[in-house]
């Protein structure tokens, strides 16, 4: 759901959005470090394999307590050795779906606000056009 480019990996902005939705926002440098630490194919993106690596490192105690990866692992705990790759994939898909549902609600609110702004602007334009037409008749 966060893979806006539909390229199979999470880039910097997609990771930023996901971390914000999980309640653990990161700095740009922190996000870059997160990706760099688990970027197995050096494409500067976070893949499913990279996600799984986060949890392997967390289980092995290889993540710094104050790192974004540690925060991500803590917020989305899953035991890959017990669940396996398919279980982890399902877990992440369910997590992302829950976050997406919350995002959809936010998008609906934003759309309503935009519609209200558009209607207010149209009303303002109609009033201005009416006043202009009205001034023509007063002369």
Automatic annotation (TrEMBL):
The entry's keywords: Calcium, Coiled coil, Metal-binding, Repeat
Molecular function in Gene Ontology: calcium ion binding
Coiled-coil zones: 95-133
InterPro entries: EF-hand-dom_pair, EFHD1/2
Keyword flag Calcium: yes
SUPFAM superfamilies listed in its UniProt record: EF-hand
PANTHER family from the UniProt entry: EF-HAND DOMAIN-CONTAINING PROTEIN D, EF-HAND DOMAIN-CONTAINING PROTEIN D2
Protein name: EFHD2 protein
Highest classification ranks of the organism: Eukaryota, Metazoa, Chordata, Craniata, Vertebrata
């Amino acid at each position: 759901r966060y893979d806006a480019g539909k390229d199979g990996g999470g880039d910097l902005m997609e990771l930023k959005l996901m971390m914000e939705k999980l309640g653990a926002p990161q700095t740009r440098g922190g996000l870059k470090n997160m990706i760099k630490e688990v970027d197995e194919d050096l494409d500067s993106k976070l893949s499913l394999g990279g996600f799984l690596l986060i949890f392997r490192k967390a289980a092995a105690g290889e993540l710094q307590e104050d790192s974004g990866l540690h925060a991500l692992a803590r917020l989305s705990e899953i035991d890959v050795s017990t669940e396996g790759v398919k279980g982890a994939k399902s877990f992440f898909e369910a997590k992302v779906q829950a976050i997406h549902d919350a995002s959809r609600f936010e998008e609906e609110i934003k759309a309503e606000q935009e519609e209200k702004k558009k209607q207010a602007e149209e009303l303002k334009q109609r009033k201005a056009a009416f006043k202009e037409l009205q001034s023509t008749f007063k002369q």
